[in-house]
Design brief:
By secondary structure, the chain is α/β, with parallel strands linked by helices. The protein has two domains: 139 residues, Nucleotidyltransferase, domain 5 (2-Layer Sandwich), CATH 3.30.420; 173 residues, ATPase, nucleotide binding domain (Nucleotidyltransferase, domain 5). 45% of the residues lie in helices and 17% in strands. The strands form two sheets. Strands 3-2-1-4-5 form a five-stranded mixed beta sheet, sandwiched between helices. Helix 4 crosses helix 11, helix 5 packs across helix 6 and helix 5 packs parallel to helix 7. The mean pLDDT is 96. Zinc ion binds next to helix 4.
Amino acid sequence: MRVLGIETTCDETAAAIVARKRDGGGEILSNEILSQVAQHAAFGGVVPEIAARAHVEAIDGLIDVALAKAGLDFADLDGIAAAAGPGLIGGVLVGLTTAKALALVTRKPLIAVNHLEGHALTARLTDNVPFPYLLLLMSGGHTQLLAMLGVGDYLRLGATVDDAVGEAFDKIAKMLGLGYPGGPAIEREALRGDATRFAFPRPMTGRPVPNFSLSGLKTAVRMEAERIKPLTPTDVADIAASFQAAVVDVIVDRTRAGLRAFREAAGRPHALVAAGGVASNAAIRRALTRFAGETGLRLVIPPAALCTDNGAMIAWAGIERLELGLTDDLLVAARPRWPLDASAEPSPNGKS
Ligand code: KG4
Ligand code: ZN
């Protein structure tokens, strides 16, 4: 089974072709990605109109290249998948409408994929992880812990009540003048900083419900930066390192609470999986590796390039759904908001 996956929900235009192997795992035949970072950098964040226009300009060419690199034609595909949300609606419309047009013309099934489900299932593409597993999903807009029980069967155990982890990285980076995107910039600065210089708070730690809160930490960092400004390069590096250390502690503590909640709801998970752009952070990966070792859990974190937004994860989620007959008709709508666990109350920040 081979599926084309299209991703246009934020600031990466991506197209990929993924196949499912006989053993159930995935094989990436091509994975084309065009980052718009340079076009948004001057504005300190993603400008939705610029993003949508850039997706329009890039998507057709990327699909051609993805097919060529895979050595395939449209006729060889079993389905066309696109992220139909959540995300910036202008961009989502570009990818989804492209997929609809291709599905109509080629008479192939259309699969409207939840972008978060793409992140959530990537560990099955890379490592064939069986259900159920505990998922720690951290991206620019979302931070949640989920019990992944089966395709389409996701139980939200906890989520952030304010900022997403990636959002906190981005806001602190902006505050420190490190530009956009913030995660990689903070990680780079932190490498040469002193993580013990500032004792920033670790919000929510110790609480049994596996929710997150990042806004108090962000405020504490802002107040410290204001207090000592003008910031020297050493100050910036020390703040970045101390902030990252606080985030790492929060993530490990909340994941521990998530594991407890998982056991109460669904027994023992086969693995702990981390996904989303923030999971590409090396300090976070190290801390989760240590935590998994202590608890005897198998830890799976996809390679960094498959943690940040990409087309392969959309193609893979498309394969998983297509195999279960979960296809969509051409009237399926693009969705700016789209929770993975539809039965859960909207999260306090309204985003998941
Ligand atoms: O999953 P993703 O690529 O896009 C969304 O769906 O949001 O995640 C992007 C987020 C951004 O907030 C970015 O700053 C963060 O992931 N990120 C990182 C790192 N690389 C990306 N955060 C911390 N450390 C990193 N190395
Ligand atoms: Zn994402």
